[in-house]
What we know:
It contains 12 helices and 15 strands. Strands 8-9-5-10-4-11-12-15 form an 8-stranded mixed beta sheet, with helices on both faces. Strands 1-2-3 form a 3-stranded mixed beta sheet, sandwiched between helices. The chain folds into 2 domains: about 5-80, GMP Synthetase, Chain A, domain 3; about 105-355, Rossmann fold. Helix 1 packs across helix 2 (about 50-70) and helix 3 (about 120-135) crosses helix 11. By secondary structure, the protein is of the alpha/beta class. This is Iron-sulfur cluster carrier protein.
Amino acid sequence: MADLELAARIKSALAAVEIPGGGDLAGYGGLSEIIVTPSAVAFAIAVAPGMEAAFGPAREQAQQAAQTVAGTRKVMVSLTAGKPPAGPKFSHGSPVPAGKTAVPGIKRIIAVGSGKGGVGKSTVAVNIALALAAEGLKIGMLDADLYGPSIPKLLGIEGRPAIREDGIFTPHEAFGIKAMSIGSMLNPDQAVVWRGPMATSALRQLLRETDWGDIDVLVIDLPPGTGDIHISLFQQAEVDGVVIVSTPQQLALIDAKKAIDMLHRLNVPLFGLVENMSYFIAPDTGTRYDIFGSGGAEAAAADLGLRFLGAVPLVMSIREGSDAGLPPMVSQPDGPEAQAFRAIARTILANDPARQRSPEFSKS
Ligand SMILES: Nc1ncnc2c1ncn2[C@@H]1O[C@H](COP(=O)(O)OP(=O)(O)OP(=O)(O)O)[C@@H](O)[C@H]1O
């Protein structure tokens, strides 16, 4: 069945779902677009703040109704509290604060963000994850960069994650770490627009409806900048700290400042700053060239009140290896690039305030 036809049939099925205040879900102004991918169907129901509990049964019925039509595709339906949808006003229901809840099986979460795109955030996130694994920790990786997912390519992952009978995802495994990415759910050429509520809903389900097993650290690759995904993640899960990636150029640092300001406002701890594409190592002689001058990132980190976590060189092998699904931590685990990532991972572990609180997180 064509995707559009399936979406239309699901919408018709939603006409049987009654919503609080009267009317049916198909005609409800808060129903998002119904996104159909080869393995999943996703839509969101936006409700006025405080109405989440009242809409719970409607969400469940919607899930069942959609699943009946969607066959083997996994159906993801979420409730998002936000702008009250156009339509009838509701007066009952008390505010239900979302609250942060632990993700089953996951001890710690480290998120990797950046002020702007293209600074190498995903590359750094993957290699930090692998470097933490090399320290003996059990690592999961979640690609939350829903608008430009690159983890499948970086880790050489192909195909879609398996789905258990109860609808829970089984994560991919690559180089000893578990990984989930919205990228695995999409066709490479498919231009899917993950609108706000849809994206936050997909993230919640990738995070919480995946059988992570027993994970010491989940590394989350955030989208660049600041937006709904960040706010949704930081509101729903206890993130132990964020690593900000920046290139040496001043502009990127100014953008990084905006991201840092947002994290402060959301009360999310920061691990510090990684400077990527920081210096150049000549492939023939191994000589290091500080092409942007040296010390800029340390000074910038200090200005921003951040710890400087380390610098990663600009080297062709990082780009080539990443494009081939072979990160430097795997292709040359003792090379200078891998050493840079190991040093950053160790600095993160050494400065994780939670290590003092949590004795089981002490392998490093
Ligand atoms: N240290 C490096 N040396 C050489 N190339 C690098 C380095 N870091 C990243 N790259 C290359 O730069 C490009 C962008 O990297 P990456 O996708 O990790 O950036 P990003 O900040 O996650 O981007 P996006 O915002 O699109 O998610 C990729 O081609 C990657 O291989």
